[in-house]
Write a structure and sequence with these properties.
Blueprint (H helix, E strand, L loop, with lengths): L9 E3 L9 H11 L3 E5 L7 H14 L3 E9 L5 H14 L3 E6 L4 H14 L6 E5 L9 H11 L4 E4 L2 H6 L4 H5 L9 E3 L1 E2 L9 H10 L1 E2 L8 H7 L6 E3 L4 H6 L3 H18 L2
Parallel strand pairs: 1-2, 1-10, 2-3, 3-4, 4-5, 5-6, 7-10
Antiparallel strand pairs: 8-9
């Protein structure tokens, strides 16, 4: 169970500490007082020895794994590699696996997501599709249409505030989503200025370097939080060049993120 004494649980997303491996990510999450952790999985790197090390670190920290990422569907995707991400997640007890799609064929994306859902059935892991203008599933409506085609009970939707804003998806649309499709959500703030969606490099820089602490940017975070199911955990996906430069130590960086996030959540409880 992912919980925090009655307050909304938060997890350290792997993107906060992208230059560090999974064991350091777990230790940073534990040292900063997060309730859970998310881990980046490159299938070729995850030897049985590494899986054992990560499971040991997870057990020592007493932290559940909220998600593993990322399965990036492409027209020429090797599904064996994608299934390996789920296999690693299952060995770690991950609750969710994050997926995005750069395949313009939405029917093929849906079929592949359904295949991944079937592969995840032994553990009940949710297969969460994230939308964003940097992918071929560019907004909430497109994501919901794909998930309708998937039709498997393990399918899920992943909402990220920066992608909600940059894609022109609305808070009202988020509030209307079936709560069963939302096992968790990502959270962060961002500057109000939106990059040109046609400028892929600017969109990626915005997403991986320019995110901001909750309450320090210009996104309607309070309204978005109210639109989400009240009991789901938040993966704090705060990719920030400024934070990476200010805090070279992963624990100190994680503490800065956890502290700012909890203060914002308490102010908006």
């Amino acid at each position: 169970m992912i919980g925090s004494g009655g307050s909304r649980p938060i997890a350290l997303a792997s993107g906060v500490v992208p230059e560090f491996g999974p064991v350091d990510t777990i230790r940073a999450a534990a040292g900063a007082g997060f309730d859970a952790v998310g881990l980046w999985v490159e299938p070729g790197d995850w030897t049985p020895a590494l899986v054992r090390q990560v499971r040991s670190a997870r057990d020592d920290a007493g932290l559940p794994v909220l998600d593993v990422e990322v399965i990036w569907l492409k027209p020429d995707s090797a599904m064996d590699e994608h299934r390996k991400v789920i296999d690693v997640g299952m060995e770690l007890g991950a609750a969710n696996v994050l997926c995005v799609s750069s395949d313009p064929d939405h029917a093929r994306t849906a079929a592949r997501l359904a295949e991944l859902c079937r592969h995840a059935e032994p553990s009940g892991m949710r297969v969460a599709l994230e939308f964003g203008v940097f992918t071929e599933v560019k907004n909430l409506r497109s994501a919901l249409a794909v998930l309708d085609q998937v039709g498997h009970p393990l399918r899920a939707l992943l909402v990220d505030p920066i992608h909600v804003d940059r894609s022109g998806s609305s808070i009202e649309e988020i509030a209307a989503v079936d709560p069963a499709l939302l096992p968790y959500a990502q959270f962060c703030d961002a500057r109000p200025e939106r990059p040109d969606p046609a400028d892929f490099a600017a969109v990626i820089t915005d997403a991986i370097d320019l995110r901001e602490q909750c309450g320090e940017g210009g996104l309607p975070l309070a309204a978005l939080l109210d639109a989400l199911p009240a009991d789901i955990p938040l993966s704090i996906e705060l990719r920030s060049r400024a934070l990476r430069e200010a805090f070279g130590d992963p624990v100190l960086r994680a503490r800065a993120v956890a502290g700012a996030t909890r203060r914002w959540l308490e102010a908006h409880a």
